[in-house]
Task: inverse folding
């Protein structure tokens, strides 16, 4: 089980191209001082992804996705409360959704090593409102256990579920996030377009979920 809390930041970047966004990112949040400041407050991992075109994905050109693991919510909140960090965000995004998640207790989650030579990384995410974490987790458990062998053969490396961690005073609806990491983009697309696999998740959400597919962002992004 991974430690701490999980952060997703999905946004429309301000720069004219993804490459220009990369340069700004590496000069601000991804600079040596920026990385040191984030790590000092508990940022354990930072990964960058760009949209992978798919008819079933809402992620479009002009967006970027950051995925971070933090030791705890306090360090994360302290970091983003910093005025310099907030100013850096205005240089990167015209709009963004930053959401903090905690691992879904009791979920069927797993991680397996990649085969030699399978170095590409792709991410599939599904996010939506739920009535009950326990109910949604059990629906995913039944579907995920049944699909694990097929998904693994198609290139699935890991599968995790998260529940939205609302800040104090926030009464927004409960949400669940499913995150899959793949080493095969074609296998991912095949799996998500397979009605026999996807129909098993019916009933987990109270409204149509948002599904997105992503690929490791091209170029030399500062990651850790």
Result:
């Amino acid at each position: 089980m991974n430690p701490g809390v999980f952060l997703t930041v999905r946004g429309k970047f301000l720069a004219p191209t993804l490459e220009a966004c990369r340069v700004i990112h590496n000069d601000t949040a991804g600079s040596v001082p920026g990385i040191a400041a984030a790590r000092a407050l508990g940022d354990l991992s930072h990964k960058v992804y760009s949209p992978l075109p798919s008819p079933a994905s809402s992620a479009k050109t002009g967006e970027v996705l950051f995925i971070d693991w933090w030791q705890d919510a306090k360090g994360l909140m302290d970091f983003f409360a910093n005025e310099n960090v907030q100013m850096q965000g205005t240089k990167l995004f015209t709009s963004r959704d930053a959401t903090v998640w905690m691992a879904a207790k009791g979920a069927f989650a797993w991680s397996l090593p990649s085969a030699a030579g399978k170095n590409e990384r792709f991410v599939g995410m599904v996010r939506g409102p739920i009535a009950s974490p326990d109910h949604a987790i059990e629906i995913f458990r039944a579907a995920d256990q049944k699909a694990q062998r097929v998904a693994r053969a198609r290139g699935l490396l890991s599968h995790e579920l998260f529940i939205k961690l609302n800040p104090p005073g926030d009464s927004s609806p409960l949400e669940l996030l499913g995150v899959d990491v793949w080493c095969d983009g074609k296998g991912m697309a095949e799996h998500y377009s397979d009605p026999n696999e996807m129909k098993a998740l019916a009933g987990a959400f109270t409204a149509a979920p948002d599904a997105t597919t992503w690929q490791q962002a091209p170029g030399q992004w500062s990651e850790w």
Helices lie at 18-27, 32-40, 73-80, 83-92, 133-153, 185-192, 195-198. The chain has two domains: 5-101, 103-215. Residues 13 and 93 are 4 Å apart (CA to CA).
